[in-house]
Amino acid sequence: MGRSNSKEQVVDFENSIQKSNSLSMAKLNKGLSLNQMQLFAFAIYSTQTDGKTEFNKADFERKFEIEKYQTVNAKRDAETVFDLKFSNVDLENDSFEFNNVFQSIKYSKGLFKFKWTEDMIPHILELQEHYITTDLSITAKFKSGFSWVLYDYLKSHYGYWHKNLSKDALMKLFSVEDKKTYQQNTARFKISVLDAAIEELNKYTELEVWYVEKKEGRSIVGFELHWSSGQKVAAASTSQMEALERVLNAIEKDMWIYIDLNNNDHRKEATELVRKSMEMQVGIKEGKITKERAKTYLADANAYIKRLEKLLELNNESTERKVKRVPFYNWLEERD
User: Of 234, 260, 293, which marks where a domain is finished?
Assistant: First the structure.
């Protein structure tokens, strides 16, 4: 049973990828840069979203907020990702089995095309149990590839709350085992790799991570990683957000008509309903909202616009000044 913390992470499952535990725990043949990890993840995302094995560079740039992904960088990253292999490696022992990830990767005029190997398919498409979900809107905030590596590794150890790793094993996990600076200077390894990754996980994810140093004499020989996981809550669906935006935009469009009523009480009520709808819009723009919150917002927004339409109707019945406009059509009620 894993530890839990008080964090609440709103997970956008429509913006997430799934990978088998064995793939997440795998020791990659080469360490990947952050952009290369993003490229690999977006290939999985494209396949899992609509079954396509292609994507546009512009969509990739938008997903990870990359200002301009040069073709020369795409070539370098695709070449590295193409060499990617995965395996079930025990970090403490000398046993391994490598499998290729891609059959091919092609790029032409902004379009990436790729083919998975048969060995890879079960790890991303035929998932039934023992897999992890990664929200790309969370990992897009990472500035360090080490953060992504550690996040995948800890999430793949579901049910655990600590893990003992030697310094050598941890360096292998981050693919920095050949760097002499880190071999000779553990403090530099901690600051530049381990602490940097933990800081981003604690800041952006549902995990709280810390460690205890394991020493022999004065030398650090290993680390006992500890972590706890917060509650993951489903984010609002695209259809929910589109429906909510439709209602709120309709209120905003006619807000001056709604609050320009003759009856003083009706005008005050309409003004308050418009104010509430505007506050709702601000709250939505500040960040992702949960599925349950969106359901509540949508019910409230529909109630607001119904009442506003009624107040406008009463106003037209009591005055010579008629407002001619097309009333809001709620297609959700038609569907219900």
Answer: 234
Which pLDDT does position 28 carry in this prediction? 53
Residue 115, classed as helix, strand or coil, is strand
∠ CA 330-333-336, nearest 5°, is 150
One domain, residues 205 and 292: no
Q: Is 178 left (phi over 0), alpha (psi -120 to 50) or beta?
A: alpha
- State pLDDT tens for residues 205-250: 989 999 999 999 989 999 999 998 877 777 788 888 888 899 999 9
Please give the DSSP secondary-structure letter assigned to residue 179: -
Identify the segments of the chain with pLDDT beneath 70.
1-2, 8-9, 11, 24-30, 88-94, 127-130, 286-287, 318-336
Q: What length is written for the chain? A: 336
Domain range for 90: 3-234
Residue of 43, 5, 60 lying closest to 228 (CA atoms):
5
Residues 6+ away with beta carbon under 8 Å from 264:
none
Query: Considering 180, 205, 234, which residue would you say is the last residue of a domain?
Result: 234
Give the number of C-alpha atoms closer than 13 A to the C-alpha of residue 174, restricted to the C-beta side: 26
